[in-house]
Amino acid sequence: MSARPPATKGWSLASALDSSLRAAAEGIERYHDGHSNPPPELEGEDEIDGVYDSPVARIIDGFRAQLKRGDPFDMPLRKLYAILDALFVAKLEGGVDDRKYLLEHGLTFLSRYPADTVTAKELQDKVIALLWYDLAHPPASVVGSKYQFRTADGSGTSIWHPDMGKAGTPYARSVQGRHPLAKNQLPSPELLFDSLLKREEDPAPHPAGLSTFFFAFANLVIHSLFWTTFEDPGEEEETDFSQPINKVSSYLDLSPLYGSSEKELDSIRLKDGTGRIHPDTFADPRVLRMPLSTPALLIMFSRNHNYIAEKLLDINERGRWQKPPPDNEKKRRKQDDEIFGTARLVNCGWFMSTIFGDYLASILGLVREGNSWSLDPLSNFREASHEIVERGSGNIVSIEFLALYHFHSSIGVQDEKWAENAMADLVGHRNWDAIDITEYREALKREREKPRSKAPPTMWPLGPYQRVNGRFNDEDLAKILHDATEQYANAFKARGTPHVMRLYRHPDNIELYVGLQAEQSKEKRPGAGLCPGFTMSRAILADAVALVRGDRFLTNDFTASNLTAWGIQDCTRDPKNSSNGGMMGKLLGRCLPNHFPVDSLYTNFPFVVPKEMQKFLADVHQDHLYTTSRPVPSKLVETLKGYYEVFNTLNDRGLASTVPHNASIVLQGGGYLASYDEDRNSDDKKLIADAFLPSQKQHLDFLERTTAKLLQEKSYTLADKNKRSVNIVRDVINILPVYFISEHVLGLPLKTSDNTDGSDLDQEVYLKFKEVYEFIFVDIAEPSTKVAKEESMKIFSQYFQDSVQEQIEAIASEQIPLLGHVVTALHGVTRTHHESHEWLKRLLIAGWGKTREELGNDATALAIALSVEFSQALTHVVDTFLGPTETGPSAPKAEETEPSLAKEFKALNLNSSDKDATTALEKVITKALRIRPPLPGTYRKVVQEGVEISNTPKPEKDDKSKSNTPKPEKNNQIKIKAMNERVYLSFTEAGVDAAVWGKKSNVSTTSANASTKQGTSPEPLIAGEIVRLLGPKWLPQALVPVIKTMFRLKDIKRAKGNSGKLLSFNELIEGTPVTTYLNYKQEPTFWSSDLTVTYTS
After folding, report:
1. pTM for this entry
2. How far apart are CA 307 and CA 314, in angstroms?
3. Of the candidates 545, 550, 548, which has an alpha carbon nearest to the alpha carbon of residue 160?
4. How is residue 277 annotated by DSSP?
5. What's the rounded Cα separation, in Å, for the pair 921 and 651?
6. pLDDT digit string, tens, across residues 224-263
């Protein structure tokens, strides 16, 4: 029996294993020596520690040395997690969690591995490669303004190869010719055309229902990339037709709009410091020789550029620009260049997003399925080797794709007629077989010499349509685009090219061109929407990825730094919009809002013929969301600014709002919103107010307590322990009505510090109310998402209705003798008690003749009205009372913050509960709301013949004979409105009407001008749904305890910098000023979202 090894400090399982292996190795060697030949002559490398050992012994000695360095296979659980992270998370989510120390574990492993082994060398190489490929080589972009904007000719798009793809350079070649054939062996072009391409008498409509509008957009894509000319060696030699040159860049830079040279670019720019271009202009004269839908669509992008430029200057995100532009010419030019360059980047982003949102959806047939998916060629990702997949490195279009992008067989019947007329006008006859290359070039040369061809872009016509004051009429542009939407394109097929297109411009590529055009086309099926030939289909997708992924401005430099935060979100497609991720509907609605309704197929899916699109949507049960008839132009809107014009129109049943229609989509049944424009609405309104207002004292107490509680919970301390900060809009003002509605209106199960079992989070409920309110009441919100929001709005509204309906049912059961006691007891056990119970009980009793569904709708209508509108009103009052901000791009104008009103407020005694002090505060709040109403305005449409709108008070219906009722004055204007005419009521302008209120900066809180002297007193508040439902006094009275609680905070003032401002910009809607707010992403929004204040704790 062997003795146990001594328990020394160095003994371990590893050393025991070492000894055992050593002994085993020696035994094996002795056995081997006795049964084999003597070992070969030993070499120096077989010597270990001065003793010659066998190969097995050397392995064991290497193992012993490894143990001394540390076990490379030591694998604690944390290291296993790190490797799993590398293997799975990096692949799925595109990154490695560095906090799991994968790199450190790997380097430790490498340091302990035998240095002179092949494996160690391979591992080290992989580590070096890993670290090398962490970064792009060469760098993807550079810092500074030199390469920030696109150049006119596309040079510099590839920073490291600046001439790659620029205008005026040769085409690339994509594939190698493998079947050499002498030119004298090629068949004649005429024979090939007549045999394989010439259109049959009855062309087939496109199998997937694509419209000629689709191919108008395709024209813009194609002519952004190709314009073939030939190298001119000079006067002494003939033109070299063997060297085709591309006159435009190889990038999707909208060169048909902006041109490809500084001269062309300058021909459309205003250069007035605003970054805009001349109205309805474009730089590429080739577009004039295309079907009218192509230049009409290009004008949409022209208008979009100016819209973008105006918004960039209005928002002035970085505070660098001046409005109006500076007088100094150098500064003005610099500002103009910056705004123009940024607007072009954003507009090209629109172009790219339309390609992948609308164009590709039609090519793949996704539009037929209601599918919003799209390829994302912009993404940054790596190969399995960790190499970054290249992007933004440049592109050169090839001669093969030039042949490929001749979609001649798809030309629709109407566009074929247009092409025939255009060609006849150019060459002077209609014998298409007689036209050759020489005649065509001579005709083009003559055309270029005509005076009309030398006119500047500002004077170019649009076929038969002429400019009016520099612009084309919206009606003409809309007609062209509506027609293009209705007209079928034709199918891709052999013998499908119009006879007028017989001419070949590239005889060297006849065999490729004919092959592409005559190849068997795809059938309509999932994944196939364009249905060209198989080769063409695959090549189009490959080229789309190459064009976008090779463009630095659409990849590496497609950032908020270059496009601004507003710009990048403006041109990014939204998969949840009404067009299933398309951008064209948003573009048409922006540029021709009176001709492209938000719910029309013509607006949202113009690339497909409407009657075909209706069938496709029916298959996916979405046809009910859209209208299918050709849009009828909306009547021009007249803006009403005078106080009495607005007041009288609001109370005239001859004009209707969109509220009942919008509400019917999200709330089924009758009630206050359904009767909004009817005479019986007065009864619905009275029913709600009479049931709700008796609890006003409880309302005010709750608002005061909850305000104090939210201020305490949401405030935080930074460096100075004596200073507290709070985002008073986001964390207090916006969610205060949520708490109020949950407790006093609907009884929602809000999760709070006092009710931890609640299921609803305050910010989530606020967002739901915001969306529903905007959907029902706001007609000036972003229209492109309205249809898409219908389903979610139904869900939100139904949730609110179900919550209150449950309470109404319980209250109704309580009224039944005997059963009521049981129901009351059960309700007390199963639900948290809310103050809403009492007002709902009054509503149920008073509304005995209405259904419970109608009463639930009434309660829901009140809740929606009280939500974000209350927040917006409170925000405006708080912002006014805080006083003017420091100057800056986001600071409201002095007249908006009303400095005199802020001083008047600060003079009040907020600590007093005296009735007079409360009344004085209420009056100041009322004036603040009149000057800055929660809603800027609303629309109405005439629904009765002969509606009269007057700018003076209307006589009381029951008191027409009183002498003190003012008679129409000489300057009184009576406007007679015809059926379906629309008016915009500006609450902002009505609230500061000098004829009623006097000059805004001088008027006291109690004054009203001439009307008071005549014996009639105007209502100080007319804007908003709260005032309409509960009267003009409830809102300012409800704000009194809230304002007192907030401004009792010691030393309350705005935080420094932008956080202490309501980030916003002013824009015009129907000719009146409207403040649009910016959220933390710099996205425009109708609602204020952030304002931080500080106070002393």
Report:
1. 0.85
2. 11
3. 550
4. B
5. 29
6. 999 998 765 555 556 677 789 999 999 999 999 999 999 9
